[in-house]
Amino acid sequence: MTNISIRIWLVPLALLAIAIALPFVVPKYYVQFASKALLLGMLAMALNLVVGYGGLVSLCHGAFFGIGGYALAMVTPKYDPVSLWWSFPFAVALAGFAALIIGALALRTRGVYFIMVTLAFGEMLFFLFHDNQFAGGSDGAYINNKPEIAIAGRVLLDLDKPLAFYFVVLACLVATIALLTMLVRSPFGHALAAARDNERRARSLGFPIFRLRLIAFVISGAIAGVAGYFSAAQFGFIAPQTLGWHVSATVLVMVLIGGLRSVVGPLVGALVLLGLEEVLKASTEYWKLAEGLIVIAIVLFLPNGVRHLLTAALGERKDESPQDVKAVAKVEHA
User: Contact at 8 Å (CB) between 148 and 158?
Assistant: First the structure.
């Protein structure tokens, strides 16, 4: 094993060790802040599967994020906690189903039209929850008791405890990274990237472009639902604004800051953006202006994202994209 290979494995393991030790060495506030940052990083990674690897800019992932949260709010009893065993799969399945319906329609368009269609669907869902009282209307919905896992009346996992909540979120994040890494390095991921790089050529070789992109869109929407479910559980509240375009746009900025075509790049982007906001809020009342200028500077001077600074420093190989579409022509059934 080369030195570069050793460093590639050591860095994520070291970061995971730091993440595990973090709640034991920082105040409770920073544990909750870290949970929030990891959830938004998960949402950004989900979006990047469509944007970075699929070549499709979606502005409705905030809607999938919100659906996951609303699903939890609607199934949680007023005075009792809901079981994590079934409420979590329900929320993820509902977000994935919404992604299936929207993707099946939006993916029939291309370019700016795809952006506008996803934006329109996101706004439609925003007004659906905003203008109707079945989920609290414009006031949003409250979750008075966080989900739990209980067997025979004995609580095994209580998400009301910040430490337990943090480690559940961290476990979900690690699982998401593993899933996305496996996907992008599989024949499915290579075929998806081939369609991104040269759709006409990939189509002529027999790739099922629509099916590949729809599967990626549904997986991405389901992961966004996971993040939305735990975000609603953390704050005990979900509002219609969560489904709006501004959430999708903010997450897209995280993807750009962290770097496209990188599984963990969007997570880095989320940590950078949220950390930057935290520092600037404590430093100046004009923090929005300062944040905007810094983001512009990052985009201009680091077009590949801040994550690639670490890549260059460690000599890590970049995420591969198919150089020869013929080499992956055999995966048309992916």
Answer: yes
